[in-house]
Amino acid sequence: MTFSPDMEAKFEKLVRSYPPGRQRSALIPMLLYAQDEIGSVTPELVDEVARRLGITPVEVDGVVTYYSMLRKKPMGKYHLQICTNISCMLTGGTELWEHACRKLGIGNKEVTPDGQFSLEEVECIGACSWAPAIQVNYDFQHHLTPEKLDRLIESLRKAPQ
Amino acid sequence: MADLVRLEIDGRMVEVPPGTLVINAAKQAGIEIPAFCYYEGLALQAACRMCLVEVERMPKLIASCTLPVSEGMVVRTETPQVVEARKSMLEFLLTNHPLDCPVCDKGGECELQDMAFRYGTGESRFTEVKHHVEEQQWSPVVFFDAPRCILCYRCVRICSEGMGVSALGVINRGASAEIAPNCDDHLECDECGMCIDICPVGALTSGMYRYKTRPWEMKHEGTVCAHCSNGCKTTLGVYDNRIMRGNNRDRSGINGEFLCIKGRYAFDFVSHPERLQSPLMKIDGRLQEVPWSQALSAVAGRFSEIKARGGKIGVIGSTRTTNEENYYLQKFARVGLGTNHIDHHRSGDVATLLTALGGRSDALATTDDLYGRKAFLIVAADLAQQHPFLAFQIRANWRHHNCRTYTVTPGPVREDSYAVRSVQVPEGEELDAVEALRDSLAAEPELVVLFGDTIKCDAVRRLVAFGDSLGIPVKYVCLVDYSNSRGAMDMGLLPDLLPGYRPVTEAGLEPGMTLPEILAAPDLAGLWVVGANPLTNKQLVSDAAFVVVQDLFLTETAQRADVVFPAASAYEKSGTVTNVCGEVQRLKRAVSVTGAKPDLEIFGLLAKEMKLDLGIWTPDAVFKEIRDAVRGYNVPLPVIVTGGASQTAPEGGPAGATSRPDLIQSARDTLFTSGSLSRFSKTLNSVTERPGALYRG
Amino acid sequence: MLYNEPSPLEVKVLTRRFGLPDSASLDTYLASDGYAALRKALGMKPEEILEQMKRSVLRGRGGAGFPAAMKWGFVPRSSPKPKYIVANADESEPGTCKDRLLMENDPHQLIEGMMIAGLVVDAHAGYIYIRGEYRYLIEILDRAIAEAYERGYLGKNILGSGFDFDLYTHTGAGAYECGEESALLESLEGKRGIPRIRPPFPAVVGAFQCPTVLNNVETLSAVPAIIRDGGVAFSALGTPKNGGTRLFCISGHVNKPGVYELPMGFNLLRMIDEVAGGVRDGRKLKAVIPGGSSCPVLKAEECDIAMDFDSLSKAKSMLGSGGVVVMDEATCMVKAALRIMRFYAHESCGWCIPCREGTLWLRKILTRFHEGQGRPSDIPLIGELAKNMLGRTFCPLGDAAAMPTISFVEKFRDEFEAHLDGKPCPFEEADRTVLA
Ligand SMILES: Cc1cc2nc3c(=O)[nH]c(=O)nc-3n(C[C@H](O)[C@H](O)[C@H](O)COP(=O)(O)O)c2cc1C
Ligand code: SF4
Ligand code: FES
Question: Ligand 1 in contact with C184 (CB < 6 A)?
Fold first, then answer.
């Protein structure tokens, strides 16, 4: 399995970031960065990473299935992660979540038919004082309201492909 | 040894070595602290929280399975708080666990069931919906029922730490955490069943045994595995004269709880439909069933006649029959038939080793030594494949005592993963590679050398000379194939050596023909094959030869026979066998056969028929004779009779040696093969890993 | 970047550079006496640095409030093994969003703090373990680290002192439990985030089985100020047993939610009214979670309290991670308890029985309860199950789930009763109107 040159460079740097013989430390970063590039953690990726780090695929799978950001199914081009944890809940996060589901016609960890959007109800993302908050892929959006969310979704739809 | 630590547990003073865990200190004081995840010899987990205890001056309950003792510590294991905590753990555990013990395969020997009974609350306050998942089959041997799993991680640990296989992992997190097999929906592994055996509940069950019977309906007999030379004790569960399962849960015997797929599951050949039920005789070119009397008198007649006219009779013995049978057979041949043309399939050059050692019996390692000694040299053997229990011992030794292992093999072996040095060389170049390790080996405090079948004759002498020259205590193990390969040699199933390796010349006899010579002799008049199948890969030259075969099945050799006697298997008779390390153990009859007879009885009846006086043919009587007559075999009876193991070793006087490398060849069985016998084991034939291969790491 | 207006009542020590143009850059940092503390520390003996740390009475900002100097003191400096400094930037405690600001606006402050810790325990490498969601912070930190290497503040022979220090960022991938120090170290080694059996503690056996200082980002970010201006100056800002300032993350039903740096011991009611502009829409205060979701909730009448570790533990709650979650009269306490339990059930690593099964069971009961399917017997059961977890789990996550739950049923039993026998949640309506 092959990765982009930058990705290979990233891996290269990663593996050198840890003491000798500790290359397994690179596992979680490698999986997450690779997922960013190819969309999900595929069986091929599991085998490849296992091979590179000298561990068994079932060990890698144990890690993949432990961390909630690592996923075996691809999500949409824009993955909307809506926090409904306590601070967000208190400021309308739950309603924001329900609104997003209705608006996009999909549920938790589902993708719109056109593959543009996916939704995930997430735990606290560290934006409590500026709640309700969401993340679009890795970008934070604070103080959201259903109306702002609608506008956000529209602008993303229009965004040049 | 540092001085002992004194502490108080439930008012009793206990003295234990520093570093002892409280849970074990308590056991020593006769106080049992319940636990699921704690398992002696495996990595600590502190996951099940069943072993929480109260410790004075500690704010909260502490897991006694990870708490080392300290001087003056005061521990309480039965306070209301502790009792209450256990109750709550069990209540938590049982929330999603099916409450159907009566139908669960583990019912009756389930640790969770016992704990719930002893420490539980009775009824549960859980009224929510349980999360159901379908049971999965991971291999013909292994089934997994997730909801029953309590996540004690014993299976994961025994597989990675104990077996060095790491086929099991944990996936997901929180309440959806689950044990998972290495090939997403199935297992590819040793199929040893250790994970099933160690599972405290009904989560992992065995395809061979599940739902066939109930533990309390079976009687259990501890005997010795019929397969490889390691000689594991296996406790057979018998119901209605059928063997239902094999395990060693009580950890008795040299192998503790260890068993490989063969010892645990490959007893099924016993009830194979092709088992011979009646003697067969060739009548007008076809083997046909005849009564015992007819077969016996026919054979007695022909043997007496051939003997009378001085015709050549060859005898080929077995590497699976008991010492008593082997001893009696060679006596029959030499005394009864007056022939020295007796041999068997030899898989290791024990004779040369013993000669080279000049009778130093302290230089022969026991299976205990493999767990206790400090350094090991493995030459020309794939231990994990060919000698699973020996491999298990050394691996455990490395985990627990950090023993140092060197491997010199023709290809990668599992031992490489923890060996301090691994050298791969083509066959024949092993000894030079060993010589190259001299300095490191000489620096070890002591050494155990295990060598395989390509080290024979001169090579064995060189290896022993090398060992002696290291200037450290060295012990040896000459690796051989089958459950009584070692006994076959000890008992003198050899053309040039009497029992105890005494040269036949000492008795004024001429050495007889070897196995290949017997088969090649154009003028061979009679051939008597007992529990062996030489005609799989060899030809019998003499067409005229009258062939008698004793076996469980109609093997290639049996098909060529004029008379075939149906023989009882190792699990259907008593007697003793000697394992690869020369440890004598007793076979205990687990089931009785109809039609077939133990080989010893067949010998006896033939002797009677031929009016020969070879002595009584009961196993005990013959064993007594062996203890008197065979060097090194006067092992302590009580040990043997109580199912223990005692090492034999021909001390005094050098033994005779072989000078014929060609006569020594391992059958190179893997974990999943066992000579001709494995053809008749459904289990061995059902696993996808079969046939497996040597030197694949 | 700042996401809320500062408050005039703030005492800006760790946040002093916030708002400066290009505050994350090395130049801005140097222009505002950045790395002065490092230069000073390079000229001090380790014991002298540690002494200043002691005087600062700096207590861990990650939640437990353990004195930083004492923790550093546990590291066997003379051990032949390499030693490591690990910054805990997993920031996942619901209600907490301060480390994010410290890394975004002043990454060099953290880097400098880690190096000074390195000087004390003779460590020459450090790792910043950042939760996966904070990807943009990894980019900011990597840039800062690269700058520091270029200009000789990291790497070999730092500022010609002969001291070497390497620093790396390491991303997590979504797991609250990986904020727990030993689970974090497992995760750093590429494993599932399962906590380790302790003792041994990280100070002795930590990253890569070597002695390790593991501190929260805020704790480490306070170090440069302490060394620069002296431990006493720092401690004087707070109370005798709780030195300095800390970043409070005020969220929930207030007019001006935000992250504010205030002296330790600042009064909670004042914090709500004067710093955060009071409870919104002039509603009445009902309750406050004072230090992140794992802290027992305080009723309004308990809120006239000094925000320091000791006062809160006296009140049977905790200062925790500084996440102050304010709830007004319209808040359904059953819903709040349920949401918090959902979180812990989702984040339990699954290793030990009481946490794995307890959080799931409680989540199921509370869900049913909030849907109006509660039974009278559930109310005591919730408390008992939580108590059965308390102090018995493998790591403190179990306690973190149990403690708030116990406080919710004990302090707001009436609201639980109001949900009994099929009644709709009495707050759903009020809840909705808050949005409008
Ligand atoms: C379940 C759990 C989650 C935690 N999450 C964090 C976290 O996100 N960030 C953090 O700094 N400390 C967290 N902690 C506390 C750490 O275990 C550790 O005590 C702390 O990082 C030490 O740094 P300090 O002494 O500077 O506070 C958590 C603890 C537990 C039990
Ligand atoms: S190792 Fe050998 S003796 Fe032991 S169980 Fe397996 S085959 Fe039988
Ligand atoms: S609770 Fe939503 S960001 Fe913290």
Answer: no
**Which pair of structure tokens corresponds to residue B371?**
């767990």
Residue with tokens 């709880």: B257
Helix (H, G, I), strand (E, B) or coil at B255: coil
To test the ligand 1 pocket, which listed residue (C59, C75, C96, C180) has its Cβ within 8 A of the most ligand atoms?
C180
Contact B228, B674 (CB under 8 A): yes
Sequence-distant (6+) residues with CB within 8 A of C252 are A86, A87, A90, A91, A131, C325, C326, C327, C328
> Which of B38, B91, B96, B97 is the best mutation test for C, with the most CBs of C within 10 A?
B91
- What are the pLDDT digits (tens) for C245-287? 999 999 999 999 999 999 999 999 999 999 999 999 999 999 9
**Cβ of B167 under 8 Å from any chain A Cβ?**
yes
A153 touches A117 (CB < 8 A): yes
Distance (Å) from CA C95 to ligand 3 centroid: 6
The neighbouring-strand residues paired with B236 are B221, B246
DSSP state for residue C271 in the 8-state scheme: I
Angstroms from C349 CA to nearest CA on chain A = 8
Cβ contact, residue pair C434, A92, below 8 Å: yes
Give all strands (DSSP E) within B492-541, no chain letters: 497-498, 502-503, 524-530
The span from the CA of A124 to the CA of C380, in Å, is 29
Q: Print pLDDT tens along chain C (436 aa).
A: 889 999 999 999 999 999 999 999 999 999 999 999 999 999 999 999 999 999 999 999 999 999 999 999 999 999 999 999 999 999 999 999 999 999 999 999 999 999 999 999 999 999 999 999 999 999 999 999 999 999 999 999 999 999 999 999 999 999 999 999 999 999 999 999 999 999 999 999 999 999 999 999 999 999 999 999 999 999 999 999 999 999 999 999 999 999 999 999 999 999 999 999 999 999 999 999 999 999 999 999 999 999 999 999 999 999 999 999 999 999 999 999 999 999 999 999 999 999 999 999 999 999 999 888 899 999 999 999 999 999 999 999 999 999 999 999 999 999 999 998 787 788 875 544 444 3
Nearest to B238 by CA among B227, B262, B222, B252: B222
Alpha-carbon span B316 to B557, nearest angstrom: 11
Model confidence at B213: pLDDT above 90: no
The CA-based angle C295-C297-C299, given to 5 degrees, is 155
Closest protein CA for atom 6 of ligand 2: B260
Amino acid found at C294: S
Distance of CA C165 to the CA centre of its chain: 26
Residue B527 has pLDDT above 70, yes or no: yes
* Peptide bond preceding C200 in cis form (omega within 30 of 0): yes
**Is the beta carbon of A82 within 6 A of some atom in ligand 3?**
no
CA B311 → CA B300, B308, B330, B545, distances in Å? 15, 8, 18, 10
Write the CA distances from B169 to A56, B172, B254, C350, integer angstroms: 10, 10, 29, 14
DSSP designation for B94: H
Is the CB of C397 within 6 Å of ligand 1? yes
What's the whole-model pTM score?
A: 0.95
Q: Measured between alpha carbons, how far is C15 from C322 in angstroms, rounded to an integer? A: 15
Question: What residues does C67 pair with on adjacent strands?
Answer: C59
Nearest to A49 by CA among A15, A19, A16: A15
Q: What totals of helices (H) and strands (E) does chain B contain, helices first?
A: 22, 30
User: In terms of DSSP bridges, do strands C258-263 and C245-252 run parallel, antiparallel, or are they unpaired?
Assistant: antiparallel
Q: Residue B46: what residue type?
A: A
ipTM of the complex: 0.93
- Whether the CB of B230 sits within 6 Å of ligand 2: yes
For residue B180, what is the enclosing H or E element? Answer: strand B178-181
Q: How many CB atoms lie within 10 A of CB C155?
A: 15
A vs C: CB pairs below 8 A? 158
